Please model this.
Amino acid sequence: MLEIALFGAGRIGQIHARNIAARDDTRLRYVIDVDSPSAARLAAATGATVVSPDVALADPSVRAIIIASSTDTHAELIQAGARAGKVMFCEKPLDLDVDRAAQSLAVVRDTGVLLALGFNRRYDPSFHRLKRDILAGKVGKVEVVSIVSRDPSPPPLAYIDRSGGLFRDMMIHDFDMARWLLGEEPVTVYARGGALVDAAIGAANDIDTAVVILETATGKLCQITNSRRCAYGYDQRIEVFGSAGLVRADNMTATSVETADAGGFRREPALPFFLERYAAAYRQELDEFIKALRGEAAELASGEDGRRALLLANAAQESLRRGVPVQIGI
Amino acid sequence: MLEIALFGAGRIGQIHARNIAARDDTRLRYVIDVDSPSAARLAAATGATVVSPDVALADPSVRAIIIASSTDTHAELIQAGARAGKVMFCEKPLDLDVDRAAQSLAVVRDTGVLLALGFNRRYDPSFHRLKRDILAGKVGKVEVVSIVSRDPSPPPLAYIDRSGGLFRDMMIHDFDMARWLLGEEPVTVYARGGALVDAAIGAANDIDTAVVILETATGKLCQITNSRRCAYGYDQRIEVFGSAGLVRADNMTATSVETADAGGFRREPALPFFLERYAAAYRQELDEFIKALRGEAAELASGEDGRRALLLANAAQESLRRGVPVQIGI
Amino acid sequence: MLEIALFGAGRIGQIHARNIAARDDTRLRYVIDVDSPSAARLAAATGATVVSPDVALADPSVRAIIIASSTDTHAELIQAGARAGKVMFCEKPLDLDVDRAAQSLAVVRDTGVLLALGFNRRYDPSFHRLKRDILAGKVGKVEVVSIVSRDPSPPPLAYIDRSGGLFRDMMIHDFDMARWLLGEEPVTVYARGGALVDAAIGAANDIDTAVVILETATGKLCQITNSRRCAYGYDQRIEVFGSAGLVRADNMTATSVETADAGGFRREPALPFFLERYAAAYRQELDEFIKALRGEAAELASGEDGRRALLLANAAQESLRRGVPVQIGI
Amino acid sequence: MLEIALFGAGRIGQIHARNIAARDDTRLRYVIDVDSPSAARLAAATGATVVSPDVALADPSVRAIIIASSTDTHAELIQAGARAGKVMFCEKPLDLDVDRAAQSLAVVRDTGVLLALGFNRRYDPSFHRLKRDILAGKVGKVEVVSIVSRDPSPPPLAYIDRSGGLFRDMMIHDFDMARWLLGEEPVTVYARGGALVDAAIGAANDIDTAVVILETATGKLCQITNSRRCAYGYDQRIEVFGSAGLVRADNMTATSVETADAGGFRREPALPFFLERYAAAYRQELDEFIKALRGEAAELASGEDGRRALLLANAAQESLRRGVPVQIGI
Model:
């Protein structure tokens, strides 16, 4: 039985907690959260104990930690976890500051522990199949990747304020998808966007709508479009176009029902948000993490993947600000 | 330039007239219809002349005739046309009476002329491709054919009265599809149905809704469902299930537009009726007829196909009346 | 914590056992199976104990039993369970003999216990939505229900022999769907079919391919087609056609991936079989059963639903044998 | 009968010639082409006469001219036609040089004749419905337009050389679509691309793959992707995303046939190229032109639309060359 400590009892933390509880081979030992009632509720529901970070990290029976607390705590927890010799899984982003992120990764490297990054979309059955189809040569040489990612509605302004902005909070997932599917590092990014959904988001110095072009050194191209509002569900689609054809992953729906009347044929909206769309992805992500913990071969996004996505997000932010394409740092 | 005489200036006659006019190699010479104004209008629009049947049949420059007049005139015109040595195309059904139909076919056989039957669906690009896929072995051995055929709305009661009933007027097309796609003759038919759409149709001793099962001597099965009302357009679908898989033809739409909002995704209804759905089929049907006229290889439904479909319709009618499955005559 | 005893550690029993184990409010207390190793394995995996039927039924802490053992044990277990005052969930069919089924239901009625029947498809999210759409009037007055149900491949001949035949083993699900969706009792059934997939099934006096027509007293119609072989997955589709339109539930797939190349566009096959297609349905079915156990409102198929479906299956069998439509008993 | 003269007997000229011939109210009087055999063949097929440009322009019975000759002849013919008082329809682009284009438009303005531009996609039934849906408010306020346009295979290198490059030859259609659907003028363009399909195209100083971002003054965004090669047909898709939802137009296919086997479900490729995909659009385009000729209300792309699209193409070309976003001229 693998004992795991969970930092963060919020929305994502709860997903991980439930998935740990549902497995035969894992046990959620500790829940840590500054919000005591949340921690207590989640611990009670899963048979875990609420403790302080120090207790969790000091307990040698805890093999692994999952960091799903707020972004500003990630760097410190990663470094402490690494020094405590824990295998770690951290939600994105590593940090809003790329230097601090790099510093965390240096500690991880020095201690030799495993750090996996929570880019959940890599584990979605449809996107995973997309990736395998590319690797199997079904589209030939990849030429253009197109990513659509639209949230159903904007988060609260309070969240916007501490989110690091659309590129680091939301499009960072798409930057990871882009790198993963292109199979090459983008070298330039150009970003345009604005607050088309809610002027208050603009007043908070953020945007809610964006389009981006990435280009790799060999000339492969990627288009990304994001919106913080989408009337018809959580719009998560990817198309990969190559020399031999196309592979794409469409949205998923809860049922396969279609009705027809004088107004035509109707299907239901896309699954409402990430809890529903990526339910299987979160289970699979945990599964890969457990495999890695056991020393088995596993497909995991790494800390370096987290840093690279952050570099892209920062460059996109700079491109938006300056109105020109920006070279990606290394 | 092939000169053609057209009997019947109604809805179907007008389709043929326009298709003849649009070709470089055919000319509509004569239009014949008891409804003089209709005949005059159609003749004026196509450069044809209104004449009596005798004149058209006596003119040696007329190589072919198209019979699109009312059903009760078919037998006489076929026989007269055959005796005049014309190549003939006749709309379904041959006749409401199978003996009279057989008598017409005997005259055709004796005179050695070609008689093609207007089972337009055989020439629909989708159904034609379905047939070719079956012949190419894409479904392996055919096991079950399922046919859906629904008109958008019932015809006028006056039409119902002289139509010969749903099986001979409407389902006769599906019986032809069934024979064509099964590749074998059905030996039994079982039919159920009623006036679910309009009680007045029931009062006129007809039905507006029906389901039928056909079985061939080797045990292949066919399901047919018909309705005289369909809210979402002209519903024309076929599925052929075999040992190796399925091939199906869905409805067609005028555009590929889809809209999405909080209510989900919407596509437009199916094409409204046969003029739209089978526009290409009518052109292709004429094309095959012209090929045959020229002595080239052509795929045409024959007079015998018309008689066979009529036998199935009559057996279905008897099955409905008696409440038992009925053997198909030969 | 609701304590449950499970009779039958086979494929379906294992589904129920896992679903019971995954809930917070239920506990699998006992597993009973004549196949001791299967029972032991399942008990070990779920923390249950292997006991004899008598022990399970005699334990007052066991509130409910789930009967997923072989069909020939259902009647005896239902009667014993009813007399022991257990709330019961029984897999279909109740019995192969309608009189024995009726006898079991009489005992259930006398003892006043709840008996739910395992018609899992009623709980499938797509079919459940179909039913709600009908109740919401989206198709107007129901006129024709069309059900397609195809297994990926035939069961072993040994299973065929004791299955009671295609109608009682396989199509019984579709008969239940038909009753549920028509909202009326069928009064006649006509069935055709044969051994088109495997002659050995024919030699065993069963069929592997069938088409059926049902009709209700008010003239509503239902078509069903079954095959024991389907190349492209587990084909589970329903269309309900009514005065105002159509509602249909299509197959489900594991991913939303589509590839395109010179050969066209390709999507993956339907989910392979019932374990995958009805995974959510089995969970929802248990959920409804637990609700009923707690005295909450629940949508459950009843013992009488099981008997009615059996009557339809028997009538279909007789229709096939005699070659005529058969009236349904009451 | 409206008499029309056609300049250019190539691929597009032939489409127009056939469409003119198929109408009851138009007559193709003259065909003009430097390639005499082509002109002779097309004239013979349509009952027209081959003449020199002067003869055609001098004939007062000729009300309208269609300019479908090579791009370098457009400016001169437009000016000559305008001076001859002809109503004109000119294929895109107006010219490769925006100043020469403006000069032609000035002559048109001075003479007061009508000049329509051949942006055929505006008349495609699907894109036309898209536009109407936007105008009807189905997506709310337009935020992001995404256009996919991929040719099945690159044109000959000789054509590439005189084409003016991908932006002026191919993407110019998408620039027109963007303006038309955004309902506002783009003010900046950023373009990336390369010769990913064929290095010889790169050696000829052109590209075969491109992605572009346009932005309007109010912050509306447009993504365009082009490729000169597409394995699965002529890929012509548009999505318009707005505050209230999405409207999109997918590719069209020749049939609605789908096959299913162990490898899954297959549909045919998109229609192969513009002759097939835009057959209806070319007919509708002519129809609108004839309406305008008659003084009826007509929806036509204007000469100014042609100039605006050319400005966008030139700016995209400059953006690609300089690697920065470029402001659009006025």
Observations:
- Chain D has a mean pLDDT of 97.
- The CA atoms of residues 180 and 219 of chain D lie 16 Å apart.
- The interface with chain C takes residues 231-232, 260-269 of chain D (CB under 8 Å).
